[in-house]
Design brief:
alpha+beta; five-stranded antiparallel sheet; 1 helix; 16% helix; globular
Length: 96
């Protein structure tokens, strides 16, 4: 983020850390995207085997096929946050 900031790299969209008014193409931002990402977590049950509510996730981007990407923020150290992905396209019987 310190080098490229928000935007796209191939089919990966990276959210900006804060809202801005001057981008030609606004990829979105973390504060505005957080409620919807947390609602997906709460609605679909999060990661199997992880006990956490939607308040424990923070979005950072989206990938191809509109998959949503974020961090699981259970640790106090952001360097220890694992990446979580919510898959829109799933096979029958799979979890998102």
């Amino acid at each position: 983020m310190s080098v490229y900031s928000a935007g796209g790299i191939g089919e990966l969209g990276i959210l900006g850390p804060l809202p801005v008014d001057f981008l030609q193409w606004d990829p979105g931002n973390i504060p505005d995207s957080t409620p919807a990402f947390r609602a997906l977590w709460d609605r679909d049950g999060g990661v199997p085997g992880i006990v956490a509510d939607g308040g424990s996730v923070r979005p950072w981007g989206s990938g191809c096929n509109a998959n949503e990407l974020g961090w699981l923020t259970l640790d106090s150290d952001p360097d220890s946050w694992p990446v979580v992905a919510w898959r829109r396209q799933i096979s029958y019987g799979d979890t998102r």
